[in-house]
């Protein structure tokens, strides 16, 4: 911990020293780059400055609602030039996890989640069930109702899903249970476990992907494999794509239990920004056990501090 | 444990000794008395015999979908004479918990659940929001969406809800969070935490009340107050209604982690029946830590054994 303090504020000296000691900045998106569809102040200037200083920029998000391609489009719509290759999403991570584990393309994947997961799975050559389509379906507790299920389902992926309903809850629990109990080798994967999120610009959203994961996990009495932050799975992919060392990276995020923990788990330096879900009192609360190397209000502070 | 064995089978001797040593039998319903709308074989004969022997019969169910009045109607429809006063449901328990804790009738209760909870709350004089009605509502992650909430909500009750959707998930998490963080003294109550259930006659249902409770609990990062089994809360009410001693009661159920644990928590004798969710291999599995005093296939076995 810099300065020997548990949670040191980013100063001009600390900013210069940080920039000198890293080759890459990894940014979380929700609450760091944007809130919903609104860019956070000073983000373009900050990214420009860091690129000019020769830093590699990478964007690592637990939000599985979009694919890498869709996020790249969103960046461009907000006036930021970011390529697909610079973006690592938990939707992409889920597809890559299946690929890495030699998941048979003849099996199907049941998805609680949105288009981002479906697109990444299809790009990776996998067939899906569920997704937004099942949000229109109903299930009712009626006599003699029987769950028809597709025996070729070999994995369940659970991510954030605004179309979540009792139908999907039952089917995801059913498939997860089948996968775990009747079909060894089958997979129960969570994109991430964020309990809440900043999905729109106005306020914190109460139900993050973690709530859906908790529901399925309760039914099957088993914990999922988590591929998003704070799991180090995404870092393995990132390191395959770029010639970088984690000790010369800085993870910048607004969540202690995902972003900062991910940075710490993978050996990065860590910078907490207060522009998203974490407040200063929460950071400084005695019950908090996750301490970033540095904290500041928002990424824009880097510009001011580096120009002092 | 009878016979010194970890899980002794009910024999003719054990059945006679059990009946001699208790004044009341407490029966779980789903998987013991019925499956969905279908009576389990031999239940009428068993209840008749026990009543003739002077035993008090009580029905204790975690299924919050109906009120006591609605359950009494269901018993009658199945040809069984059971009064409302003999029925203790987790929906009733939730309403009684509010009453016992002097919950102000001027505050409102947000309900994830069905008619049973709404009816018990109204009978107890409380006003509700949510319930099946909110199952028709949608919420979409759109820019500038803001959660309008009723500031008079002072408790959230979560039970089994076949109309569960993302709207209810967000609102129950939001209200639970408001209750816990911004309004000390507010209550987050779960009717029960059964991960799965036997809601219809054909098969186990993958998503019990526990899945919805787990989702809300994940969002607010706090455990709820549980009023159904295995919590002893229902027993307190039962003892107020009847002049009985728990050491002279036998709890009969199909679930180890709710029924048998409830019996053990409250000092009852316990009889597991295999007519519901628990299988003999599960009972005898080395990982199982909950051992009933006795087990048998179904309640009907009592008739055969007592007549030997």
From TrEMBL, chains A, B:
The active site is at residues 28, 30. GO terms for biological process: photorespiration. It is found in: Plastid, Chloroplast. Pfam families: Hydrolase_6 (PF13344), Hydrolase_like (PF13242). Mg(2+) binds at residues 28, 30, 254. It is an enzyme of class 3 (hydrolase). Substrate binds at residue 229. Its EC number is 3.1.3.18. Photorespiratory enzyme that dephosphorylates the 2-phosphoglycolate produced by the RuBisCO oxygenation reaction. This is Phosphoglycolate phosphatase.
């Amino acid at each position: 911990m810099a300065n020997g303090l548990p949670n040191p504020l980013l100063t001009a000296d600390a900013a210069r020293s940080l920039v000198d000691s890293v080759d890459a900045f990894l940014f979380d998106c929700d609450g760091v780059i944007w809130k919903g569809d609104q860019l956070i102040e000073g983000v373009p200037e900050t990214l420009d400055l860091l690129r000019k200083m020769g830093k590699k920029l990478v964007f690592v998000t637990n939000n599985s609602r979009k694919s890498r391609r869709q996020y790249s489009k969103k960046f461009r719509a907000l006036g930021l030039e970011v390529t697909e290759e610079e973006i690592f999403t938990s939707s992409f991570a889920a597809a890559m996890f299946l690929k890495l584990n030699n998941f048979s393309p003849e099996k199907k994947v049941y998805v609680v989640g949105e288009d981002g997961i479906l697109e990444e799975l299809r790009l990776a050559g996998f067939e899906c069930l569920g997704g937004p389509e099942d949000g229109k379906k109903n299930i009712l507790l009626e006599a003699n109702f029987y769950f028809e299920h597709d025996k070729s389902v070999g994995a369940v992926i659970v991510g954030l899903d605004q179309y979540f309903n009792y139908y999907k809850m039952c089917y995801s629990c059913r498939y997860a249970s089948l996968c775990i109990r009747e079909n060894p080798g089958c997979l129960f994967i969570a994109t991430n476990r964020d309990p809440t999120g900043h999905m729109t610009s106005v306020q914190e959203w109460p139900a993050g992907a973690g709530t859906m994961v908790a529901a399925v996990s309760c039914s099957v009495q088993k914990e999922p494999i988590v591929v998003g932050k704070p799991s180090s799975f995404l870092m393995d992919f990132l390191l395959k794509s770029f010639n970088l060392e984690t000790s010369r990276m800085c993870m910048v995020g607004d969540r202690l239990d995902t972003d900062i923990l991910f940075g710490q788990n993978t050996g990065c330096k860590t910078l907490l920004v207060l522009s998203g879900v974490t407040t200063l009192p929460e950071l400084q609360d005695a019950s908090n056990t996750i301490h970033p190397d540095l904290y500041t209000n928002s990424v824009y502070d880097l510009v001011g501090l580096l120009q002092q």
